[in-house]
Amino acid sequence: MLCIFGPGGFGLSYALDEGAEYSCDMLRVNMSVQILCINPDRRAPIGPVGFSHLSDGLTHNDTLRELSVASCENVGDVHVRKLCPGLILNRGLETLDLSLTNITETGVGYFLQCMQDIAYLKFIGMARSVKERRGLH
User: Fold this and answer.
1) What pLDDT, on the 0 to 100 scale, is given for residue 121?
2) Could you tell me if 80 and 49 are in contact, meaning their C-beta atoms sit under 8 angstroms apart?
3) Which residue, of 45, 62, 76, 130, has the fewest CB within 10 Å?
């Protein structure tokens, strides 16, 4: 199910990898979407395969300005690794919010490696991970 949040944005309130594939295919042809929010859904979390599809969609779409996966507790290091190729090739994304996820130092390392090739992001949110928030180091 796609949830329209307003002009130029939509959100994935489901996140099965197959649904993510279809939605991210849309990024290849729809050049009007500017905001994509992937909502946390513990019943059907988006997996690394879904993030590979998202990465592929980013390689074909330079009109997307904001991508948020904030508060998606299932998003971790492998997700970041799968997303990096699309981030490197995309030239339109300005805001990336990965806050309150389960990304660890390993995922931050993947992200820092791909950041060497990214100079266009204006805001990167990587606030506390779920483990830190719960005090479980």
Assistant:
1) 86
2) no
3) 62
